[in-house]
Structures are given as C-alpha cells and as structure tokens.
Amino acid sequence: MKLYAKVMSDRAMKSQGGNKYINIDLYVGDAKNPVPAGSIYFRIEENEYVVSYNDIELHRQEIKAKRQKGEINGDILTLPNGEKMRFM
User: Fold this and answer.
1) Which of 18, 40, 67, 76 pairs as cysteine with 24 (C-beta 3.0–4.6 A)?
2) pLDDT band at residue 18, thresholds of 50, 70 and 90?
C-alpha cells in the first residue's frame, strides 16, 4: 500500500497569503474508490492554536512567540525551534 497526499489552498493559488485554518480530509482505498477515514482540522484562535480530529479537540496550545518562517533545504524543513521535518 502506498500513501499519497494532495495539498491545495485557494488563497495560496491566488497569492493571497495564509488562512486561519487548515482542514485535512483523510481517505483510504484507491483514487477510484476513496473511503473517508476522518478529518484533521488546525485553526488559530486569538493567541492559541487548536488541533481537532473528527470534531474532537485533541490539542490546544498558546502561541507565545512571534511567527517565523522555517528554512527548507532539499526535502528537510528546519523550524525556528530547530526541529527538522523531512518531506518525501
């Protein structure tokens, strides 16, 4: 089994900047017969961010620092806190 992702933002496609939320719909199966497996939702509220799965709040954390961009080197994203993420 292989995993695939499709990422799209209407605002980004129109060069309008970011959103205050991201909704990720998860499916299993193949492209011809996708079966819904859930939804992950990230949103910004005042001075905190919230992560939910299928409308159940999983995590809420205060935003303490000024937002900064990470640096991308090849397929590795280095976040401002030094954490590294690999994209494949």
Assistant:
1) 40
2) low
Integer Cα distance of 22 and 42 in angstroms: 5
pTM assigned to the model: 0.52
How wide is the angle at C-alpha 55 spanned by C-alphas 53 and 56, nearest 5°?
65
Q: Domain residues for 22?
A: 10-86
Instruction: Please report whether residue 4 resides in a domain.
Output: no
| pLDDT averaged over every residue in the chain | 76
In a domain, residue 3? The reply is no
* End-to-end CA gap in the chain: 16
Number of domains composing the chain: 1
Within a domain: 21? yes
CA 67/CA 70 separation, integer angstroms: 10
The per-residue pLDDT for 52 is: 92
